[in-house]
Structure formats: C-alpha cells, structure tokens
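Q: Structure tokens for this one, please.
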Amino acid sequence: MITDNDMPVDIIRDTDRFAKLCEGWSSLPFIAIDTEFVRTNTFYPKIGLLQIADHSKCYLVDPLSIQDWSCFTNLLANPGPTFVIHSCGEDLNLLNTTLGQIPLRIFDTQIAAAFLGLGYSISYQALVAKLFSIDLPKDETRSDWLNRPLSETQQLYAANDTCYLLKIQKVLYQQLIAENKLNWLESECAFLLDSSKEAENITNWYSAYASISNAWKLDKQGLQYLQALSYWREDTARKRDKPRYWIAKD
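A: Here is the predicted structure, written as tokens:
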C-alpha cells in the first residue's frame, strides 16, 4: 500500500518487530504519530490503531495484536525525539489513560499553524490542502476502528492522516523561526503536556462543576451540592467506564 504522497505503508502486528522499530525510532529527532480510537459508549477511549511515520515509511500498528507496549512507552519517555502531532488533546488523553505514558516533547502542528495565522483550530486535512494543495478524503472519520479486519480504505485513510505530518512540521518550524515564535509553541506544548498529565488527578474533579452551564445562577449552598454531585459523576463515570451523561445529565 502507498499513501497519497507515495510513502510506503507497513502494517505492524508482531510485538518483537514493533520493539525493534521503537529502538530505531529512538534515535530520530522527530517522529509523527496519530491514533484512531472509538469512544461511543465508554468514558475512556479504546485505541483501534496507532500510526507512526518517519521520513521513509508510515507504520500502522495494530494495538489488538501487540502484547507488550513497554518498547513504545520507553520511546515516549525518551528525551531525544520530538513527537509531531496534529491537535494533540485526544491523542495525549488516549496515551495517558491507555499506556500511562505521554511524550516528553511534542510539536503540535495545529497550534503552530494558529500562531502563524493559518487558522484557529485548523483541521489536518485543511492544513494539508493549504500547504500542499492536496485534498485528503474524510470519509473514514467515524469508522469502527476496533473492527477487524480493517478495510484497505480505512488503512489508507489512517496512513494519510500521518504521512504529511513531518513535512508540515518542517514548513511550520522554519516559519516559526523566521517570525521568532518558536518559543510560543514550545511553551504552549509544554502546558498541554502538563495539563494532560493532570487530567486524571482526582483533585481536579472538584472543579468539574464549573463547566456545567448555568452553574453561576446557583447560590453558595447550591454550588456546594452541584460540586458534590459533579465529583460523584466524574468518579462514577471512570469506575464504570461510561460516558458522563450516561451517569447523570447536566
């Protein structure tokens, strides 16, 4: 299989081969990653596919076949590589809750694009179109990534979702340097990494009530009740692994 930018695609289902690849990736300065997951009736996302790209190939790692993830968590914890991600929030959450490890350093292409005036919260497909005049399909966005076997269309979609990231990073990095904005991106990415690590901190659940609409209309006692109920919902949703609104609606 070949991606739209002529990058070979390799499907990884063997744990030993995955470990050898992770060892090789540890010496790279930049690694592109993306994930596909399902989160329809659970609190925590269920990983369906891990995509990794270097400058020569895109790898589709089947998480349903990999038995030992220590090689990859070690790679994430390696201070050498910077992981290039587009809109990192959900990917970091998935890595944190599934593997207990997030990258030490990231380059978020969506945030970099925003700092450069290319659009606030620009999608990956829109950024590829803007930088390279290439239109990528979006028809597999809501696929069932836990179903096996994955179709060739799904595999190609997932590979295309990753194979342009390093090219995007190179273009945006040069522009950030030229506009003296690289430190802006580094600071924001560091903040996002810290925030992701804190997402499952139990003490943060006490402030979850603040995001509920119309909470400001309550008096002091009402807010105390709301805070207690909101904390209970956060705790129960995680314990049962069910969406918040299944436990209690706002």
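A few notes: The radius of gyration is 20 Å. DSSP finds ten helices and six strands in the chain.
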